[in-house]
Structure formats: C-alpha cells, structure tokens
Amino acid sequence: MTYHINVRRTNLKEFLQIINSLRSLGVIESFESTKDLVREGEPLDEETLLNILNNSQEEIKDGKSFSIDEVKNQIANWKKK
Fold first, then answer.
1. Which residues are within 8 A (CB) of 15 and not within 5 positions of it... i.e. 6 or more apart?
2. Using an 8 Å Cβ cutoff, are 24 and 16 in contact?
3. How far is CA 56 from CA 2, 9, 47, 48, 79, in A?
4. What is the C-alpha to C-alpha distance for residues 46 and 28, in angstroms, rounded to an integer?
5. CB–CB of 58/50 below 8 Å?
6. Best CA proximity match to 29, nearest among 48, 2, 8
7. In Å, what is the CA distance from 68 to each residue of 34, 46, 74?
8. Given this model, what pLDDT does residue 40 score?
9. What are 23-79's pLDDT values in tens digits?
10. Which residue did the predictor score with more confidence, 65 or 22?
11. Residues 6+ apart with CB under 8 A from 4
C-alpha cells in the first residue's frame, strides 16, 4: 500500500529518523521522495502519474495552492538569499 505524506521542511530530519526506525522494524518496506519521482529520462508509470495528479487536485480543492504572484514572490525571495 502506498501513502503520500507532506512533511514540513523544518521537520524533515526527524521524519526521516522515524521512517528509518520503522523500516528497521519491518513496518515500512520502502520509501521515496516525490523529488525522486521526477528525473529527466526516467518514465513514470501511469498509476504513479495519476496518483500525483489526483493528489494535486485534492490539494487545490483544499486551498493548498499558490497564485502566480505568490510563486513569483517566493522566487524573488529565494534569489535574495
């Protein structure tokens, strides 16, 4: 069974420690980041792509999206750092 979990970037280290502990216990078979799903030259299977799209649509319905202006502001802020 596959789950998609959104983790705060500030808590990533703690999350990975928990995941590794659960994997050591045999509770978790494997895990991967969504950034691992998108690599140039590597195809995605249809089920994975549909799951990503469905998850994205649900996030949009829940108001978890950004306007183009918000994205531009975030990019501008990142460039300042």
1. 7
2. no
3. 16, 18, 14, 12, 26
4. 23
5. no
6. 2
7. 22, 28, 10
8. 64
9. 899 998 888 776 655 556 667 778 888 888 888 888 888 888 888 888 888 888 888
10. 22
11. 34, 51, 55
pLDDT at 18: 92
CA–CA distance from 30 to each of 26, 33, 75, 76, 77 (Å)?
A: 10, 11, 33, 36, 35
Q: Tell me, what's the pLDDT at 29?
A: 87
Within 8 A by CB and 6+ apart from 31, the residues are 19, 23
Contacts for 37 with CB less than 8 Å, ≥ 6 apart: 44, 48, 52
Report whether 66 contacts 17 (CB < 8 A).
Answer: no
* Residue 46: per-residue pLDDT: 84
pLDDT of res. 63: 87
Contact residues for 44 (Cβ-Cβ < 8 A; gap 6+): 37, 38, 52
